[in-house]
Structure formats: C-alpha cells, structure tokens
Amino acid sequence: MKNHHYKTTIQWTGNKGTGTSGYRDYERSHIISVENKINIEGSSDPAFRGDKTKYNPEEMFLSSLSSCHMLWYLHFCSEAGVIVIDYKDEAIGIMEETTNGSGHFTEVTLHPTITVSEESMMEKAKELHHKASEFCFIANSVNFPVKHIPTLLVK
C-alpha cells in the first residue's frame, strides 16, 4: 500500500478589528493556499454569514467529488478507446442542517454531460461511470451515496 500526503494552508482574513468579540463582529473570509498554486478566496455559505462572492467549503467539497469522478472517468475512457471530446458536470449536493446547528451531506448526484466522438462508443462510455465511481478517492471517503446520472452525446 502506498500513502500520499497533502498539505493546505488556511489563513483567516476576516478580522474586522475586534476579532471574534461577537458572532456578527467578524467576517468568515479566508485564503486557501497550496504551495506553488493560485490562492482560493473562501468564506462560509451566505446562510452562515458568509460572502456569496467567495467559495464555501460545501461548494469545494462538491467540486472535489465531481472532479475526482471526472478524472477517473477520463482515465478509464482513454484506456478503453472511448474518445471523450467534451465533459461538463453539474453536481448537486444535499446538506442537512441539524437542530443544534451542525450538519452533514446526505447525498450528492453528479450530472455529467459527455460527448464522445462516435456512436459505437456510447455503451462503453456509459458503463465506465460505474468503474470511475468505484475508484474515486473522494467518493470512497464519504459516508453517503454519490450517484451519477450521465447524459451521453455524440459529436
């Protein structure tokens, strides 16, 4: 077995001068950094006093699931001779907020639209979503279903 290690830095930038002196006295803004990469501006969801112009953790989480599935899918297509010429996913996640203010995702559904180069590739292209789901590192790390409802097109 092989281990892979990842490192990110989160820097809170929302101190408006009095720190966390009160719930409404600070911004939820922060910078997500990874060495040698562009910074990402983050905040909380607007429902939790966040900045709607910045990415929130829930969106980043959903994007991670979608991206991981896509990368595995493209990998398996390339191995199987399925030529994908376009891929776009509109992922939807449901997070349940509990009465004490905590919460958790209950499900995610990926809605990828994939265009392949030939009609003869359609069946294999559809089938490979199942394999991508089995291999996705992020999907294998969550305790809720990650569904996929692909739409396949031919150029």
TrEMBL record:
It holds the Pfam family OsmC. Coiled coil: none annotated. This is OsmC family peroxiredoxin. It comes from Chryseobacterium nakagawai. The lineage of its organism: Bacteria, Pseudomonadati, Bacteroidota, Flavobacteriia, Flavobacteriales.
